[in-house]
Amino acid sequence: MSEIQILLIFVAGIVAGFVNTVGGGGSLISLPVLIFAGLPSAVANGTNRVALMVQSLVAVGYFRRKGFFYPKLSIFLGVPAVLGSIVGARFAISLSDEMFNQVLAMVMLLVMVLIIVRPEKYFLKAEVENFTPLRLAAAALAFFGVGFYGGFIQAGVGFIIIAALALITGMSLVKINSLKVFVTAIYMLSSLLVFVLSGKVDWILGLALAAGNGIGAYLGSAFAVHKGDKWIRVFLVVSVLVMSGKLLGVHKLLGF
Question: How many domains is the chain partitioned into structurally?
Answer without folding.
Answer: 1
